[in-house]
Amino acid sequence: MDDQGHMRSALALASRGLGRVAPNPAVGCILVRDGIVVGRGWTQPGGRPHAETEALRRAGAAAAGATAYVTLEPCAHHGSTPPCADALIAAGVSRIVVAIEDPDPRVAGRGLARLSAAGVLVEVGVGAEQARHLNAGFLKRIERGLPLVTLKLATTLDGKIATHTGESQWITGPAARGLGHMLRRQHDAVMVGSGTVLADDPELTVRLPGLGDPPPLRIVVDGRLRTPLTAKLVIAAARIPTVIVTHAGGDPLRAQAFRDCGVDLIEAPRDSDGNVDLHMALAALARRGLTRILVEGGATLAASLLRAKLVDRLAWFRSPGLIGGDGMDAVKPFGTDRLAEQALGTRLSVMRLGQDLLETFALNA
Question: From the candidates 52, 54, 73, 296, which is the catalytic residue?
Answer without folding.
Answer: 52
